[in-house]
Amino acid sequence: MKVHILGIAGTFMGGIAQLAKSMGFDVSGSDQAIYPPMSTQLEQAGIDVSNYDDNFLAREPETVVIGNALSRGHPAVEQTLNAQQFYTSGPQWLAENILKDRWVVAVAGTHGKTTTASMVAWILDDAGLAPGFLIGGVPENFGVSARLGDAPFFVVEADEYDTAFFDKRSKFVHYHPRTCVLNNLEFDHADIFDNLAAIQKQFHHLVRTVPGNGMIIHPKAEVAIDDVLAQGYWTPLESQGESGSQADWHYELKEADGSVFEVFFQGESCGEVRWGMTGRHNVQNGLSAIAAARHCGVPVTECVEALSRFAGVRRRMTHLGEAKGIAVYDDFAHHPTAIATTLDGARAQMQAEGQNGRLIAVFEPRSNTMRMGIHRSTLPKAFSQADAVYAFIDPAWQWRLETDAFDCAVTVEESYETLLERLVSELRPGDRVVVMSNGSFGGIHHRLLDALSERVEA
Is the keyword Cell cycle in the record (predicted)? Predict the structure, then answer.
């Protein structure tokens, strides 16, 4: 069967393409821009990709899968509709072709979905279960964002964003998980949700789909999720939290930066995790992953041992390299809470390593929610751990950063080139630079390392 995917360069849709190819479908796709890592993965999978100008219907696909980035008025959408071509959404295709026969582990939440889903997939794989997965990032333990895997387990990052132009429900309502992780819940995606209550409504739709013989794993005393569960649930619950939280699962830090922590279940120690991750947020992600894997049948001690071998996720505090004594990291953080937890973890790690250099944050407000000004008041506090902030803001966005509200020096540039020049001239040995964006950021990460390497020291 021929399948053509519109919006194939996105991580989710590119993952759908790889899964379809693994199942024996004849897969092709269209997009307007494609770059690594997805371009690399699609090329390695042997999937033909073209731009939207291509007459994709000439391939005579039986099914066109339309990504949620495409709306009415887009030429490819109009071409599909006018031809009365059969079409579907990515989540619906996934549900009907793969998930209906699997034990689905779904990881939902405003933050940490990619990392936690990657952890679950790795623990199951380390236990010899060879799970399938579809994740919105690239787990370093696997090197790809999606694989078909073996039955019964399939791990999916359960996004609350809408499904498609013709289906405005959240993606995750299609997945029908047996094991469901609710990481956290904050207001986000202001381009499609009016308020937090609108997101909570979608989360409760997800809760309604989890069977009575399943499991819902959630943080202890997180008000927004507590409110969702208070609307009703029909599934056993397990909670996770820090020491003293009275949660079913809790942790005790053995190192302040979170690089070593002890895991407890119902008051009993299950062992210590020693890994390369840092930050309390990742420790909590790890607890959720252990709880989910245990529900799938993996003994807790094996979960703890496997997590110690977890290699992380690309673009989640990925150490890109060092030049002239300056370390550069790449991170996906774009919501104030994610920015704060990322920088908190970076600062804790620097302190644990005895490093006295500056922590430099470089970011662009790329998300629709950020540009709408929803997080304007909370953004300055998110950078409280930074010694200096450098931001790129395109004048066309008509968006202004309230620099006076920051506790540190803030530099704003209107082009990638001038931002790069400023960084190269002002960074100094001992600095740790964290580049934060949910986009490509003009490739500034690697360009910065190259430019620093060529810098002539005074």
Answer: yes
CA 221, 239, 313, 112 torsion: positive or negative?
negative
Q: Among 2-6, 108-112, 186-190, 214-218, which is the least confidently predicted range?
A: 186-190
Q: Pick the more confident residue, 358 or 331.
A: 358
- Is 111 marked as a binding-site residue? yes
pTM assigned to the model: 0.79
Q: How far is the C-alpha of 89 from the C-alpha of 163, rounded, in Å?
A: 7
Is 112 assigned a ligand-binding role in the annotation? yes
- The answer to whether 110 is a known ligand-binding residue is yes
Give the pLDDT confidence of 158-199 residue by residue, as tens digits. Answer: 998 899 999 999 999 999 999 999 998 887 766 677 788 999
Q: Is 209 annotated as a binding residue?
A: no
Selection from 357, 349, 360, 343 nearest residue 422 by Cα: 360
Count of C-beta atoms within a 10 Å radius of residue 432: 22
For 371, the token pair is 């540009």
Whether residue 246 contacts residue 220, with contact meaning beta carbons closer than 8 Å, is answered with yes
Alpha helix locations (H) across 46-104?
75-82, 90-97
Helix (H), strand (E) at residue 179: strand 179-182
CA-CA distance, 114 to 107, in Å (whole number)? 8
Contact 102, 42 (CB under 8 A): no
User: Is 206 in contact with 231 (CB distance < 8 Å)?
Assistant: no
Domains and their CATH numbers in the chain:
2-89 (3.40.50.720), 98-307 (3.40.1190.10), 318-454 (3.90.190.20)
Count of residues making up the chain: 458
Strand order in the sheet with 48-50: 48-50, 26-30, 2-6, 63-66, 87-89
Task: State how far the Cα of 335 lies from the Cα of 345, in Å rounded to an integer.
Answer: 15
Q: Is 214 annotated as a binding residue?
A: no
Tell me which residue has tokens 């399943």: 214
The predicted pLDDT at position 181 comes to: 97
Buried-exposed string 90-104: b where 16+ CB fall within 10 A, e elsewhere: bbbbbbebbbeebbb
Three-state DSSP state, 131: coil
Q: Which of 437, 429, 382 is nearest to 410 (CA)?
A: 382
- Which of 292, 299, 173 is closest to 237 using CA atoms? 292
